[in-house]
Amino acid sequence: MTVVRSAAHVQARTEEIRRLLDRHRVLETFAVRQQTSKRDLLEQMQRRENLAALQKHVRGLHPADLAAILESLPPDDRLIVWRQLPRRDAGLTLVEVSTDLREWIVGALERQELIDALAELDADDLSYLSESLPDDVLTALSERLHARDRSWVVDTRRYAEDSVGRLMSPDVISVREDQHVREAIETLRARADLPDQTDRLFVVDARNVLRGSMPFHLLLRTEPGTRLGDVMLVDIAAFTPDEPASHAAKAFERYDLVSAPVVDDLGKLVGRVTIDAVLDYVHVLSDQEALARAGLRGAEDLFAPVAESFRNRWPWLCLNLITAFVASRVIGLFEGTISRVVALAALMPIVASLGGNTGNQTVALVARALALDQLHGSRLRLARKEVTVSIVNGALWGGVLGLLSIAVYHNVALGLVMMAAVILNLLVAALAGVMVPLLLHRIGRDPAYGSSVMLTFITDGMGFLLFLGLARLVL
User: Fold this and answer.
1) Residue 164: what pLDDT?
2) End-to-end CA distance of the chain
3) Confidence of residue 2 (pLDDT cuts 50, 70, 90)
4) Is 195:169 a contact under the CB 8 Å cutoff?
């Protein structure tokens, strides 16, 4: 039985597994160094005792917890732990790990070992793994499925990676609209078990066209002789396989859904989407967006090879170097002004910092609004609002910094320059914070992708230019 454990319990298990792995390496090294007949005996003792203890610690953990443990281990230790898992746990754990780690494990295993580990997965899980598996392995695994499930695995691969078709499951229970409540309950009782996250029955007509749904709470409270078509809910959220997965995620959040039907172009029921699949999608998407904000192009394994990490990071570092050089040349244009008023060197980072903070706040707000489709016809209003907020904040904090500058450097003109530069740079930051994600969205890129790098360049460069340019004019 798989038990859901607390985070503290999983962490304790992880530490114990690491201790056993350390011991495993010591015993293995010692056994290899032995050149006597004792070597085989030592290896047998190691496998019998240490690996048996390791199996005991991983047995019974939820696949998601096992995936988290594998993610935290160095590459050499991951396969040792994964190979101690029972066959079904090994397959489900491969479903739960990140894409990079999954592909690494698949590449490290022999073909037959991989087939044996995944042999007990159902069509839904196998479809989820299909992009990470070699074609010959996927074919061998598909041949073990029933014809309907085999067809499902093939069909779902036709859909785009970020589509509802990749999230949907074939495990759907449907009933006819001309049936009665009594018959629907008998249908449920006749099944050996119910698919996970089953909270309703989907009601179809004689042609399998979706007509409505029958939530369990309504099914249990309705008289047994009542016709399903008379009491079913007809206003339900349904999706098509080609629809973006993000649409389903928003609908599940908005309507607190547990499951929802998927229909084809003719309205026929072909599958369903469940909350666990949506949450997995949202989790992966949020990870990608967090990395994209830093300019990383995709997920990166913590223990990825140096060459792979280098390829993932260098483009935005190169862009950052170019933008930083441009900003430094802006400062170089005013070397004479800085040399005459040394206080400018101490104050100009404050202007740039305030602009960067304002811009990041605006970017986060706009990116979220784009993700939730909240900007239909409201982009100009949003820009006006952000400009107004930036002017108010600029006047407030620019005034505060201006007074502090006067108090510290006893120079009224310097205080006025500081206040004006803060107001103008916050205004620029607000406009950039609106325009950068909108522009990225317009060209089909993730609004969060590289926004921080571009925004830093704008707020730093303009901050230095405004502050030092005003200083040259006034001081």
Assistant:
1) 95
2) 76
3) very low
4) yes
Q: Are 99 and 87 in contact (CB under 8 A)?
A: no
* Per-residue confidence (pLDDT) for residue 376, from 0 to 100: 66
Q: Which residues contact 302 (CB under 8 A, 6 or more apart)?
A: 71, 72
> Measuring CA to CA, how many Å separate 6 from each of 12, 85, 92, 93?
10, 20, 19, 18
Look up the CATH number of the domain holding residue 283.
Answer: 3.10.580.10
Q: Looking at the structure, do residues 158 and 178 belong to the same domain, yes or no? A: no
How do 174-176 and 269-274 pair as beta strands? Answer: unpaired
- Pick from 11-15, 187-191, 260-264, 282-286 the range whose average pLDDT is largest: 260-264
Q: Is residue 249 a contact partner of residue 190, using CB atoms and an 8 Å limit?
A: no
Of 267, 291, 315, the residue that ends a domain is 291
What's this model's pTM, rounded to 2 decimal places?
0.70
- The answer, yes or no, to whether residue 308 has pLDDT greater than 80, is no
Q: Which residues form the domain of 390?
A: 306-474
CA–CA dist 450, 293 (Å, integer): 5
Q: Which of 176, 256, 170 is nearest to 210 (CA)?
A: 176
Q: Which residues, 6+ apart, have CB-to-CB distance to 70 below 8 Å?
A: 78, 81, 82, 93, 97, 101
DSSP 49: I
Q: Does residue 301 sit in helix, strand or coil?
A: coil
Task: Determine the Cα–Cα distance for residues 43 and 41; give it in Å rounded to an integer.
Answer: 5
In a shared domain, residues 66 and 136: yes
Reading the block at residue 167, the tokens are 């999230």
Q: End of a domain among 141, 162, 183?
A: 162
